[in-house]
Every structure is written in C-alpha cells, then in structure tokens.
Task: structure prediction
Amino acid sequence: MAGEAGNRLPWHMTVSETARMRNGLEMRVRCESCDAGLKPADTAFICSYECTFCSACARSLDETCPNCGGELVPRPRRSDATVDCEVEPA
Ligand SMILES: [Zn+2]
Ligand SMILES: [Zn+2]
Result:
C-alpha cells in the first residue's frame, strides 16, 4: 500500500545531501560558527542534520544547534586508517 510519502526532507537539506547520509556521516571539516578546522579525528559536535561545531562553540551554544534547534552531540571520530566497524559477537 502506498501511503503518504513518509520522508519529507528537512528544509535545509538537498536530495543529494540526503543520499550522502546513507554512506555515513559527511564529516564536515569546519565549525559553522567560528570556522575552526575540524579534522575527522578531532572532537566536534553535530546535530541530527550534521550542522557541525567545534567543542568550544557547542559549549557556548549550550549544546543546542542554532540552525535547527536540535541537540548537539559529540561526533564519532574517524581515524584516517581503514574503516573497522566490526561488532563483537555476543
Ligand atoms: Zn567553533
Ligand atoms: Zn542543526
């Protein structure tokens, strides 16, 4: 049954951005607030739309995204090395 289209895009996302999400986080390299460089291995804070902030700005923003009002949470760091996401068997 085709119901109403379930997934409406957030207002600030393009279709290509949404498609990219399926391949993992975008890992933006700059703080949106102070333009500090953020390497994938650095500590950064993101909201669910991947608005990205350095830890100092996230703190001064009270860990709330100024763009969408969402929570800012620590971004998982990504090493430069090979992706290794194995889950240990229970
Ligand atoms: Zn910043
Ligand atoms: Zn946001």
Remarks:
- The mean pLDDT is 82.
- The first strand starts at residue 44 and ends at 46.
- Residues 31, 33-34, 36, 53-54, 56-57 surround zinc ion (ligand 1) (CB under 6 Å).
- The helical segments are 15-21, 55-60.
